[in-house]
């Protein structure tokens, strides 16, 4: 079986063709670098995404956040539900951990907020 993907690792967006045996990628073509091969293999077996969003602060403003590692794609809705229930206490600095464990990742602030 063959699967076509667009690599999302960098802005070049290479068109990847993946030869599959079951869910396993046995050959990847079209990738401009080795990161595209790794992405294609992961996407076919355990698709993951880094989640970026905002968290409400105690003063009513928002602070931008992201997971520090990609999480399983099927957990994104649950991750967003957790994020939407979170209220950050100010001040917040870049890198502060706002949620310690979100499906194997940590939710960290990506901006300073006083
Ligand atoms: S394969 Fe490499 S060069 Fe192509 S989009 Fe992915 S990361 Fe960028």
What are the SSEs and their pairings?
Elements: E1 2-6, E2 15-21, E3 24-29, H1 34-45, E4 48-49, E5 52-57, E6 62-67, E7 71-72, H2 76-85, E8 87-88, E9 97-102, E10 105-109
Parallel strand pairs: 5-8
Antiparallel strand pairs: 1-2, 2-3, 4-7, 5-6, 6-10, 9-10
Bound molecules: iron/sulfur cluster.
| Helix share bin | 10-25%
Please write the string of helix (H) and strand (E) elements.
Answer: EEEHEEEEHEEE
| Overall pLDDT level | 96
Number of self-contained structural domains: 2
How do the strands line up in the largest sheet? 8-5-6-10-9
Number of helices: 2
The CATH architecture of the largest domain is: Roll
> Based on DSSP secondary structure assignment, what is the total number of beta strands?
10
The CATH class of the largest domain turns out to be: Alpha Beta
Terminus-to-terminus distance: 53 Å
Give the bound compounds: iron/sulfur cluster
- Strand residues, percent: 35-45%
The coarse silhouette is: elongated
Structural class: alpha+beta
Low-pLDDT stretches = none
- Main sheet: strands, sense, barrel: 5 strands, mixed
CATH fold assignment of the largest domain: CPE0013-like fold
Radius of gyration: 17 Å
């Amino acid at each position: 079986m063959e699967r076509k993907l667009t690599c999302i690792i960098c802005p070049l967006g290479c068109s990847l063709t993946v030869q599959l045996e079951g869910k396993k990628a046995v050959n990847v073509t079209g990738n401009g670098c080795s990161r595209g091969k790794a992405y294609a293999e992961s996407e076919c077996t355990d698709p993951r995404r880094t989640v970026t969003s905002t968290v409400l602060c105690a003063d009513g403003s928002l602070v931008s956040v992201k997971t520090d590692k990609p999480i399983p794609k099927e957990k994104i809705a649950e991750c967003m539900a957790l994020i939407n229930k979170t209220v950050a206490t100010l001040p917040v600095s870049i890198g502060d951990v706002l949620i310690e464990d979100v499906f194997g990742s940590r939710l960290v602030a990506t901006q300073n907020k006083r």
